[in-house]
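Encode chain A's predicted structure.
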Amino acid sequence: MLIELDRTSTVPLYRQIAEQLRARISSGELVPGTRLPPERRLAAVLGVNRTTVVNAYRELAADGLIVGHVGRGTIVADPSRLHEPGTPASGIPWPQLFTPATDVMNDPLLQDTMLVSSRPDVITFATGMPAPELYPIATMRQLLDEALHQAGQSLLQYCPAEGYPPLREALASWIAPSGMRFGPDDVLVVAGSQQGLYLLARALLEPGDIVAVESPTYLGALQVFRAVGARLLPIPVDQHGMRVGLLEDVVARRRPKLIYTLPTFQNPTGTTMSRDRRERLLALAARYQVPVIEDDPYGALRYAGESIPPLAALDQHGVVLYLSTVSKILFPGFRIGWIAGPRPVIERLAILKQIVDLDTNPLAQWAVWAFITRGLLDAHLERLRRHYPERLERMLAALERYATGVLEWTRPAGGFYVWCRLTDGLRARDLLPEAARRGVAFAPGESFHPDDAGTGTLRLNFTFPPVTAIEPGIARLAEAVQALRSIRLNGEGSRRARVVAPIV
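Encoded structure for chain A:
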């Protein structure tokens, strides 16, 4: 569903917005209880002043089509009440009862991106997934058959909330060569790193607490921190990772409750924090007693350069909570991740995890344990480290061939992503519909920022699309950028320059 603004029309912009929303409410596209975007957000999406959206909403409210609720936003009214005053609405107006925390996924840009990516004719660079054709399915089938045959009864029952004990031991041993000194009791198995982030946020944060985060950073972390009511303190990222010098300038004044970082092959930029910055970050965290969440889903996927020890390996003061997952290196669908950290934290998180889900799938935990202890995971990683660099080189070569002059990009030393910047002040949100028309999708960079920055950036995943699709996908993307440049150059002030933007 789109709102189209014709800036050459004599009809005021607020009336155009109001009339299009009115039509969608009347047609049933916007059902009673639907939450409309906040005024400020819709204004930013449409590129208009907030007052314009306020006036549009006021006109609709005057007609009884929408109602505002303090703390819940603007809601589409029940039309039956317009014609039959005093008649109660049928059923419970569920959308009006949801808390603001449930709005964290309401990102129009991402919803539009996901919709485009789901089309079968689209080459998508938007996802954060590994290559499905490289999944070791045959091996895993044999392991699961073995598990069910030998220990099916026990593995199909509950297991300890802390995790399957052999897996906790295997994980502690597997990460030890990188310098991390954790025992099995210092490891908590979670249902993917996203659950790990949620548990950490629930255990350590209260509404109003400040979390220092990289800008840009992992979208899922921003959603979790916002859901628990935290305030986000953005720290810029450059080619050497988080700018720790800027963090030092604000920690003493703002006193964040947590520092969150992806220091190795960061999502979305692909950058890696230098060792010097890692050591400065740890010293800063120890001096001010601020815990550091180190999110490390990509650290095993290095394709060039020398490895840098994880923060958890350099930590001498017990300030780091290490978070990782098999989702990027094995199967996302297994939902197996882990947190390693000081034992009091692990014990408290295990209690919280019992409330959330009792335990994580024992059968999947057994399979990951077998994969690690039999050397299969290391062999699989070697395979990935052979294939993924080829895909990265194809993407970089295609960008050089088709996108020189319209995009700027960085070369990552590992991970999943190439981070790009549009030239000439173009915005990624305006590029989305042009790309969709040409059958290609990307992740808009501003969705990864905790503030309003990054409008001209985009993230491209090179691991998920088939090798043969990478070059044509980049060619389509470059065509979309050229089309957007042409519209901007030739269409400003004309009907071709109208804004087309999603509202839900």
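Residues 82-89, 493-504 have pLDDT under 50 and may be disordered.
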